[in-house]
Amino acid sequence: MKTALITGGTKGIGKAIARAFLERGYEVIMNYDRDEKAALAAQEEFNMMGYCPVLHRADVSDEMQVSDMFSELLSLYGKIDVLVNNAGISFYDVIQNTSPAIWDRIFEVNVRGAYLCSRAVVDNMLGRNCCIINIASVWGEVGASCEVAYSASKGALIAFTKALAKELAPSGVRVNCVSPGVIDTDMNSRFGPDEVEDLISRIPLGRTGRPAEVAAACVLLAENTYITGEVLSVGGGFAK
User: pLDDT digit string (tens) for 160-175?
Assistant: First the structure.
């Protein structure tokens, strides 16, 4: 049985990704940091469906916590076949109100977290046809007004993906990126009806996306063994 670790895997897109891998027969570990109530609720929901995902609490931006997480998981399971770096945070405001502390925290979670987790798991993946999937954003491709820090962090994650894919390809480890567009999650709940309507008017498919559609892209990238270094946009054509 293959093992998949999804960071930020108990809510929104992460939860949908966890479900998709559970449905494909993977052993799934759902990482979370602060919201234990939501994590336990997600686990219980999957238990009711007949699945048994494992929860693991760790702040992916903290080197020691990441090291401890992978040491524990590898001692229990022996291997991790798929790492999905999904954990992420956002901030919506003009740059004048984006303090250095906010900027740094966004990069700590969105970029440093992916770096620390990838670095911690790579030795275990070498030569085993494993994969790392990073969850970026359409804003990392085209930029978003009032989301400079978030857009920059996701752009950095895309560059990280492309560079790491070239580095690890000779060792049989694939690295790809999924770039969601406007997806119906809590992260986008801040937009009012008029803002949502404006966003939809710029999406060729004419609707917002569903977390399950992002999850399906992750499964595709995990199971197609001849795709690496790619940025797969799941945005209804928004970034085209």
Answer: 999 999 999 999 999 9
Q: What is the pTM of this model?
A: 0.95
Neighbour-count burial of 64, counting CB atoms closer than 10 A to its CB (0-12 exposed, 13-18 middle, 19+ buried): exposed
The answer to whether the beta carbons of residues 82 and 5 sit under 8 Å apart is yes
Quote the pLDDT of residue 230: 98
Identified catalytic residue from 26, 115, 150, 226: 150
- Full strand arrangement of the beta sheet holding 131-135: 54-57, 27-32, 3-6, 82-85, 131-135, 174-180, 231-234
The two tokens of residue 46 are 């999957």
* Domains within the chain, CATH numbers bracketed: 3-231 (3.40.50.720)
226 is annotated as an active-site residue: no
